[in-house]
Amino acid sequence: xxxxxxxxxxxxxxxxxxxxxxxxxxxxxxxxxxxxxxxxxxxxxxxxxxxxxxxxxxxxxxxxxxxxxxxxxxxxxxxxxxxxxxxxxxxxxxxxxxxxxxxxxxxxxxxxxxxxxxxxxxxxxxxxxxxxxxxxxxxxxxxxxxxxxxxxxxxxxxxxxxxxxxxxxxxxxxx
Length: 175
Prior knowledge:
The chain is an all-alpha fold. Helices cover about 65% and strands about 0% of the residues. The chain has helices at about 5-35, 40-65, 80-90, 95-110, 125-140, 150-170. Helix 2 packs across helix 4 (about 95-110). The radius of gyration is 18 Å and the shape is globular.
């Protein structure tokens, strides 16, 4: 059993769950946008999509952004370097550039606005994979009695999203 900050872990799990829920909401609404705008304001749905994406980035940065954040992964107190796990498992040789694109986008557009900031919106597929790797790393370094599954939470939430949209929208096969 490893020594770790239980309060930080609890917060991190909620933050990671919320990150996955916002990212799943973004993806779901984005896929259904053409159908959704038939029944309401396109502007509303675009703002909703953006809000979920912005929040997903902000939440991810709470754990994987700067070391100053109280819920940053290093604040958990586990021994070992998580970044090396990312590099090995994702076969991602330029994680620093990816990390910088997300944190810059958060710092210069999502959480704050820097006039003239025009960088492309970062893709969160890798960020999602990093969240799942973090779960594996934490589980491998903490007592086995701590049991959680971010992937299961995400799948259950996606099912709930689909059920909700099925109630809201007439059946239209997805493209």
